Amino acid sequence: MSSMDEHEVELIILQTRKIDMLPIKRWMFAVAISIIASPTFITSTLTVVTAQEADNKAYITAENKLVVADEMAIRQVIARLNHALDASDYPLYASFFAEEAVFTSDFGNANGSEKIVLALEASRPLITNKRHVAANLVISGVGDQAKVTSYLVVFERAESLTYVGSAINIDTLEKRDGQWVVVRHESELDPATLKAIQSAMKAEKAQ
């Protein structure tokens, strides 16, 4: 098979550049509006990610004294959270949280597993047909206490081959009755994702 000539390479580049970016702009704007408008969230001013700035890198070298079995169980909790979210089974998603769990984000808070379900149900049309992928898990803990810091990357999986955005998640877990549950979930959008949402909102207002 002969190699591609310069014309073919140029054509591929041009076709790649024509990928429609409209779905990601619409999704970002809709997510921002839906979460801010949701009665299960307390609105707050959008701010650039600060939790993992240069002065807060302690989690990277935090000691992990968990036994292997516990660490594996914790990894399963994080994976199952994302699978339940992508399956649109929000009660199942919330079942991995303690009843009094706190769910925080750049947009506000939801306290308790029941309110977490309500918040996700309110956003159902906007968070379906996505793939939420956790990566680069850093786990620390001892005994029945653990913390997981991970990267979250979100993709479209139905309408287009589109990267949606990214965030950093911090999950605090406790082992209760032999099961690991999330007692606090913190999610902060990465600066580029946050800026894209702000730009989409600004553009929409200007229309």
Report the helical percentage: 40-55%
* Major sheet: 6 strands, mixed
Which strand order does the major sheet show?
2-1-6-5-4-3
| Percent in strands | 25-35%
- Our measurement of the CA-to-CA distance between the termini, rounded to an integer number of angstroms, reads 51 Å
Choose one word for the global shape. globular
**Secondary-structure class:** alpha+beta
Whole-number average pLDDT?
80
Name the poorly predicted regions: 6-24, 29-55
How many strands in all?
Answer: 6
Return Rg in Å. Answer: 19 Å
Q: What is the helix tally?
A: 8
Give the ordered list of helices and strands: HHHHHEEHHEEEEH
Summarize the structure.
The chain is an alpha+beta fold and 207 residues long. The chain is 42% helix and 30% strand.
Keywords:
207 residues; globular; 6 strands
Task: Describe the overall structure.
With 207 residues, this protein is of the alpha+beta class. 42% of the residues lie in helices and 30% in strands. It has helices spanning 6-17, 22-37, 58-61, 68-86, 90-94, 113-122, 124-127, 191-206; strands spanning 97-105, 108-111, 130-142, 145-156, 163-176, 179-189. A 6-stranded mixed β-sheet has the order 2-1-6-5-4-3. α2 packs across α8 (191-206). The protein is globular. 25% of the residues are buried.
Question: What's the helix and strand layout?
Answer:
Elements lengths: L5 H12 L4 H16 L20 H4 L6 H19 L3 H5 L2 E9 L2 E4 L1 H10 L1 H4 L2 E13 L2 E12 L6 E14 L2 E11 L1 H16 L1
Parallel strand pairs: 1-6
Antiparallel strand pairs: 1-2, 3-4, 4-5, 5-6
Helix pairs in contact: 2-8
